[in-house]
Design brief:
alpha/beta, 6-stranded mixed β-sheet, 8 helices, about 30% helix, Rossmann fold, about 240 residues
Length: about 240
């Protein structure tokens, strides 16, 4: 695999039972790319992320992540799922949530000072250092998303995978989140799933269109025709940048 390629997918197919989800998928992602995965509901976007993480195994074809099988590279990938399996009412501080991201990097026993230093740095990077001791349940939706991104950063990844990180956020908060992801992309490969088609050309470099098969475009080349072909109908391309 070329040195600047961090993910390579070749001739991949996957089905849940007899229901095909992905067929004959081949593409690659370069280091420090900013990638948005788009497509209709049920098109295979989240399944593709799970295959990249090694949580699912392809029926045919291969995936290499950082020149390794996905399950071997998982420690080098930070992941924020679409729905965090956290009870927002559980009495846990923001820093405790982020500390969970150190579990796979830490031997059995109490967390070390180095772990807590890494957590503090991750919270600072996402702009949440001042709220580190605040209860997770007391945070706003956007603040919780930042904490969950910090949790993904706490494992010191080379690739950041995010499933719908701006879902259900107000437009201004979405803009702030997108600016954060842009800054993270200065040192990390960032791959996210988004239903916000207007987000695509505004922030990202590469668009991976998923609807059973996969087509890869530069962000500048995404047009109404390509999106219509992907979704099967017209989709409004709305920009969310606001002035305040």
């Amino acid at each position: 695999m070329p040195e600047n390629t961090v993910i390579r997918v070749e001739d991949l197919s996957f089905a849940y039972g007899n229901i095909p989800v992905l067929e004959d998928v081949s593409f690659s992602i370069k280091r420090e790319d900013f990638v948005c995965i788009v497509g209709p509901n049920g098109g295979g976007k989240t399944t593709l992320l799970r295959l990249i993480l090694g949580l699912l195994q392809p029926d045919r074809g291969s995936i290499r992540v950082l020149s390794q099988p996905p399950e071997a590279a998982r420690r080098r990938v930070g992941y924020m799922p679409q729905r965090a399996e956290l009870d927002s009412q559980f009495p846990m501080r923001a820093c405790d949530v982020v500390l969970m991201g150190r579990l796979r990097n830490t031997k059995l026993g109490p967390f070390r000072r180095a772990d807590r230093n890494t957590v503090a740095a991750a919270l600072d990077e996402v702009g949440m250092a001042d709220l580190a001791k605040r209860s997770f349940s007391a945070l706003s939706g956007g603040q919780r998303q930042r904490v969950l991104i910090a949790r993904a950063l706490a494992c010191e990844p080379e690739i950041l995978l995010l499933d719908e990180p701006t879902a259900n956020l107000d437009p201004l908060v979405q803009d702030e989140m997108n600016d954060l992801l842009n800054r993270l992309n200065e040192r990390l490969t960032v791959i996210l799933v988004s239903h916000d088609v207007g987000f695509v050309a505004q922030y990202v470099k590469t668009v991976v269109c998923v609807n059973r098969t996969v087509a890869v475009h530069t962000a500048e080349s995404v047009t109404g025709d390509s999106i219509r072909e992907l979704y099967g109908h017209d989709v409004r391309l709305v920009q969310h940048r606001h002035s305040h």
